[in-house]
């Protein structure tokens, strides 16, 4: 629901119903017949035109618009063009006293037009009072008003003599736009709006302007001519207006009012005027009573139609409330989604049905219902967003299979979204909002676009367009500014809508890529989280201990039930327990015999709403009832409760089935206010504080109101709205794990179980194409350990490291003597930070965003995701080998140690955690002296390879000099120079193998374990000897990586 401006146009003296009509003929007819009309959906820029055309069509073709501000008696701050602040400097919390808008004018205008640009956050209702009724209630004082009129005074400052004057009456030089005193006096005397005003010098360097206007006018109706009072006396008199100090004798009052002859209004006259004004406000209550909660709408074909006033209504499947709240709409969307999905619950939770089909059903049958109209929502409150988040969570949870005991597993939101293949709650709203934005942009509905821009100008950060611009920024953070140019940020300019209108359909198509990029990031976060848990479990199995910080004790005291001694966290929880378990009821139910509060005179339509008013309201109405009436018996109160249950409006029932419960409270009639309960003999109407003896007596009727004789009030702590942000949360997760590294303590006495007897294997993860003198061939030459080259380049099925069931079984059978991994480094490498001619690939990771930066392209997001998944899988398998008695080595580019934001895997919390182990070391070296033409700084993480550094540097060529450098592209080729650095030089492979074999010689064996099923088939594909004549042989250079397809396949 979007808020648009509303215009109220009417005669200056009007009574009766306020009809609502659309702009044009119907509005003019309503104004002609009723004297007032409410016109909705009036843009700010058209306000003056609509007002003038309406009253001219209503029978006053020569009537034009006057300038109220130039006639006003104070300087009003400019809100926008030709729109002024009506408060004129008054404090925001000060209520506006009843007054006539035309009270200051000598000639009464025929019509006045008002516009509501932005609804007040609290209050702000228009108080109408009957000027004719006011005149009748003044009695003889009316004759004095008619005879003398009223004189108004405005004290103004002088720029030279009283420069510190700050009240909005301003300076006389600004008011009359001249520094000439005589000219200013002339302008005041010639002002026809005031009928001529007098400007004269006043005390303390100030000046005063006063003018006298009539206070009585005549009102024509169909039956009679009546007199009405035009006054703004009370809010101008120095004894009452906010511009005067508390001690008016000691300070100058900027406003004042007297009789037209200059005599002061005495206290009795002011008091009489106050009483008559208050009584005239009853016209509003009388009007509401006559209307019966209906509003008169003038239609073209049926004339005046009575439309009921409700707090909400349904329209095109949406749920629109009077306050603009989206809370009920969100709850209804969530309930409708559950109603659609519950019949499919067994199918969705079935482990047999493929996840792709589950996602398709969830999207088509559930999310489509949940997101209906959600693109129009904006400026959600904390409670609204919490309800939306809960609805999305329950929807995603529908595909979660139950555990063996029938319970639904507790799964984090990110994990649910990853399995559902759908965005997080706020991102889901962003996508729906963007769909609507691009649709409106493409259709080019000028009325809709102007309304959106008008709403944004009025509501700013509370507008729908502001939310749409936030969605644009989020879209850019997912796929980069190449797809989402920065010019789209200027949506408040209509030219931007015109500029991107031809591209709206293309932008809408990009939303699929946006969602895909977002899901990649969610999957990456889940992978990092899962790896953290797995690594901690392995370290715990190795005897490591974690020094967890002491949990801070809660500040809230426990609340104990006096009947059964059960303890509860909050007083509210205790009260629910007492009501359900022990049958305790609130005392006020024995005083609520109908829907009428006879203390404040309000009719609440249902008894349950009256009970809320009495039990948890902020008034003392409950005290009034307890002191005045004898309560109903328990049986009588139970009978009333049963009646409420049958109607569906009991306090415990959700929603209100009765239409009466949907109406606003109204004043009670005299008949409704009559006593229906028996009055106490000692009944008194006292405002004295409740005594302890009274509370003790009333507590026998039931539970008294919270904080006022009953239980303590439950204090709710103000909490910030928690919104998921995948980039922020994955960075915070990395920082949390990094901070916890220092809390881990290795067990240096832990000794792994020996390997099993029989054949032993060595895993070469990410081996690449088989090459001469690679690690596998070196191992075959020097030992009887069988190398297994796990890489897609060797076999597309068995070589996929993510299909790890076989390798996990082999490792846990203690048949793996060692493992080496060299995961893809293209997203981690320092080469991305090197500036090359023609531009090179940009950095994808930084110290602040280690697992992927914002504003990457969809291709880069996918690269980062693949690099993250493969790196974590490699560390996991290597750590399992280490746990089961083997050795490991992990190779990767050296990195910069986090300098200037350059992050590498060696800076990660997982590597830092492993380095706490005495048998795990990091060795830095150059590959150049081992046979490469370029230096290529490299690091190797080793486990149980104490001889690796010695063996490595023994193979260094002492006279080596670099003949090439990495960075940029090859000449006359599109290939990057770093491609040729993927393959290890033979001397590096030899050092790695020698180090692993040195450890393997020290390994003892235990009893033999059976080989996992499927191992023979995998060995046939992955453990064949190197054949230099094979068609798959790529020589000394590794081929391209194929991991993207493999990761997405898994």
UniProtKB/TrEMBL annotation:
GO molecular function, one term: zinc ion binding
Highest rank taxon of the organism: Eukaryota
Signal peptide: 1-17
Cited PROSITE patterns: ZINC_FINGER_C2H2_1 (PS00028), ZINC_FINGER_C2H2_2 (PS50157)
Domain C2H2-type stretches: 559-582
InterPro entries: TauD-like_sf, TauD/TfdA-like, Znf_C2H2_type
Keywords recorded for this protein, A-Z: Metal-binding, Oxidoreductase, Signal, Zinc, Zinc-finger
Name of this chain's protein: C2H2-type domain-containing protein
Species of origin: Cladocopium goreaui
């Amino acid at each position: 629901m979007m808020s648009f401006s509303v215009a109220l146009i009417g005669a200056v003296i009007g009574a009766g119903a306020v009809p609502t009509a659309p702009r044009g003929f119907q509005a003019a007819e309503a104004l002609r017949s009723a004297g007032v009309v409410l016109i909705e959906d009036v843009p700010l820029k058209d306000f003056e035109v609509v007002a003038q055309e309406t009253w001219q069509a209503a029978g006053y073709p020569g009537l034009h618009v006057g300038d109220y501000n130039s006639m006003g008696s104070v300087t009003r701050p400019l809100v926008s063009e030709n729109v002024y602040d009506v408060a004129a400097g008054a404090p925001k919390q000060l209520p506006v006293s009843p007054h006539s808008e035309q009270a200051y004018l000598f000639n009464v205008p025929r019509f006045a037009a008002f516009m509501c640009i932005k609804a007040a956050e609290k209050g702000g209702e228009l108080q109408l009072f009957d000027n004719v009724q006011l005149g009748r209630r003044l009695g003889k004082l009316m004759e004095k008003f008619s005879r003398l009129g009223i004189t108004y005074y405005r004290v103004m400052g002088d720029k030279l003599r009283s420069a510190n004057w700050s009240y909005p009456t301003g300076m006389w030089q600004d008011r009359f736009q001249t520094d000439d005193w005589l000219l200013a006096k002339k302008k005041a005397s010639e002002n026809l709006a005031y009928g001529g005003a007098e400007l004269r010098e006043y005390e303390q360097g100030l000046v005063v302007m006063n003018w006298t206007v009539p206070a009585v006018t005549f009102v024509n109706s169909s039956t009679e001519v009546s007199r009405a009072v035009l006054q703004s006396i009370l809010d101008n008199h120095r004894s009452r207006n906010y511009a005067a100090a508390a001690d008016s004798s000691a300070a100058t009052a900027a406003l004042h009012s007297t009789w037209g002859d200059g005599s002061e209004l005495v206290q009795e006259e002011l008091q009489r005027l106050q009483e008559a004004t208050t009584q005239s406000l009853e016209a509003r209550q009388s009007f509401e009573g006559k209307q019966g909660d209906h509003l008169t709408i003038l239609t073209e074909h049926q004339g005046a139609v009575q439309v009921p006033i409700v707090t909400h209504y349904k329209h095109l499947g949406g749920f629109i409330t009077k306050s603009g709240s989206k809370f009920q709409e969100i709850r209804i969307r969530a309930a409708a989604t559950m109603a659609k999905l519950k019949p499919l619950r067994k199918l969705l939770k079935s482990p047999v049905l493929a996840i792709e089909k589950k996602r398709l059903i969830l999207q088509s049958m559930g999310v489509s219902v949940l997101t209906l109209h959600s693109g129009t929502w904006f400026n959600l409150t904390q409670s609204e967003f919490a309800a939306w988040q809960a609805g999305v969570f329950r929807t995603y949870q529908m595909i979660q299979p139950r555990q063996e005991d029938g319970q639904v597993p507790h799964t984090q939101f990110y994990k649910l979204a990853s399995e559902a293949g759908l965005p997080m709650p706020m991102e889901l709203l962003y996508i729906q909002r963007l769909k609507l934005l691009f649709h409106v942009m493409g259709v080019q509905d000028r009325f809709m676009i102007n309304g959106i821009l008008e709403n944004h100008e009025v509501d700013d950060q509370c507008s729908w367009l502001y939310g749409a611009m936030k969605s644009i920024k989020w879209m850019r953070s997912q796929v980069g500014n190449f797809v989402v140019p920065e010019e789209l940020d200027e949506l408040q300019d209509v030219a931007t809508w015109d500029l991107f209108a031809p591209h709206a359909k293309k932008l809408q198509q990009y939303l699929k890529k946006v969602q895909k990029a977002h899901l990649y990031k969610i999957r990456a976060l889940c992978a990092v989280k899962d790896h953290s848990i797995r690594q901690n479990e392995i370290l715990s199995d190795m005897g490591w201990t974690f020094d967890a910080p002491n949990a801070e004790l809660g500040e809230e005291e426990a609340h104990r039930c006096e009947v059964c001694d059960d303890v509860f966290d909050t007083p509210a929880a205790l009260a629910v327990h007492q009501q359900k378990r022990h049958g305790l009821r609130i005392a006020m139910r024995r005083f609520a015999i109908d829907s009428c509060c006879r203390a404040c005179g309000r009719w609440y339509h249902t008894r349950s709403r009256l009970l809320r008013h009495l039990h948890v309201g902020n008034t003392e109405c409950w005290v009034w009832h307890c002191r005045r009436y004898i309560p109903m018996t328990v049986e009588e109160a139970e009978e009333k409760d049963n009646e409420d249950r049958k109607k569906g409006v009991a306090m415990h029932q959700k929603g209100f089935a009765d239409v009466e419960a949907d109406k606003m409270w109204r004043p009670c009639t005299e008949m409704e206010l009559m006593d229906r309960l028996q009055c106490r003999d000692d009944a008194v109407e006292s405002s004295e504080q409740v005594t302890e003896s009274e509370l003790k007596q009333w507590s026998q009727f039931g539970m008294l109101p919270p904080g006022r004789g009953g239980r303590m009030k439950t204090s709710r702590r103000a909490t910030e709205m928690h919104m998921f942000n995948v980039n922020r949360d994955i960075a915070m997760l990395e920082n949390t794990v990094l901070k916890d590294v220092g809390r881990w303590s290795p067990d240096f006495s832990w000794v792994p179980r020996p390997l099993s007897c029989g054949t032993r294997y060595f895993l070469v993860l990410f081996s690449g194409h088989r090459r001469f003198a690679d690690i596998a061939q070196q191992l075959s030459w020097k030992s009887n350990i069988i190398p297994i080259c796990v890489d897609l380049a060797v076999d597309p099925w068995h070589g996929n490291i993510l299909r790890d069931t076989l390798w996990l079984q082999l490792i846990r059978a203690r048949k793996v003597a060692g493992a080496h991994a060299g995961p893809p480094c293209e997203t981690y490498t320092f080469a991305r930070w090197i500036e090359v001619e023609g531009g090179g690939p940009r950095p994808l990771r930084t110290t602040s965003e280690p697992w992927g930066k914002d504003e990457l392209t969809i291709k880069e997001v996918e690269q980062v995701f693949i690099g993250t998944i493969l790196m974590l899988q490699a560390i996991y398998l290597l750590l399992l080998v280490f746990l089961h008695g083997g050795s490991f080595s992990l190779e990767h580019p050296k990195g910069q140690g986090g300098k200037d934001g350059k992050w590498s895997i060696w800076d990660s919390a997982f590597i830092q955690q492993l380095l706490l182990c005495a048998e795990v070391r990091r060795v830095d070296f150059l590959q150049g002296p081992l046979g490469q033409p370029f230096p290529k700084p490299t690091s190797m993480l080793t486990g149980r390879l104490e001889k690796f550094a010695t063996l490595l540097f023994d193979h260094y060529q002492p006279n080596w000099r670099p003949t090439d450098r990495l960075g940029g592209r090859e000449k006359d080729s599109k290939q990057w120079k770093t491609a040729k650095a993927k393959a290890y030089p033979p001397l590096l492979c030899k050092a790695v193998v020698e180090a692993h074999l040195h450890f393997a010689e020290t390994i003892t064996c235990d009893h033999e374990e059976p080989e996992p099923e499927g191992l023979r088939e995998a060995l046939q594909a992955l453990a064949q000897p190197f054949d230099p004549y094979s068609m798959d042989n790529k020589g000394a250079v590794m081929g391209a990586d194929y991991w993207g397809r493999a990761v997405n396949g898994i």
